[in-house]
Write a structure and sequence with these properties.
The protein has about 80 residues and is of the alpha+beta class. The protein contains 2 helices and 3 strands; from the N terminus they run βββαα. It has a single domain, classed as Ribosomal Protein L9, domain 1. It is elongated.
Length: about 80
């Protein structure tokens, strides 16, 4: 059984790693993305990538904060 690892990068993308062919990525219409030669790839979670669903680094340019940090800051703001 192949092992697939998904890492949530702090204020960044989801990093997907696994043996080539072990991951199948499909769009909302069921169309498969060609992952040939990509044993690892990053998926956008900021919504700003021009190459969705893949990350293009836009998160660092727009100051994206992952939900875990955004919720923490919102909670801190309510306590003041």
């Amino acid at each position: 059984m192949s092992s697939i690892k998904i890492t949530v990068k702090k204020n960044g993308p989801f990093r997907v790693e696994g043996p080539e062919g072990a991951v199948e990525l499909v769009d909302a219409d069921g169309n498969k993305y060609d992952l040939t030669g990509k044993p690892a790839f990053s998926l956008c979670r900021c919504g700003g990538s021009v190459n969705k669903p893949f990350c293009d680094g836009t998160h660092s340019k727009i100051g994206f904060q992952g939900a875990e940090l955004a919720v923490k800051k919102a909670d801190e703001g309510q306590q003041q």
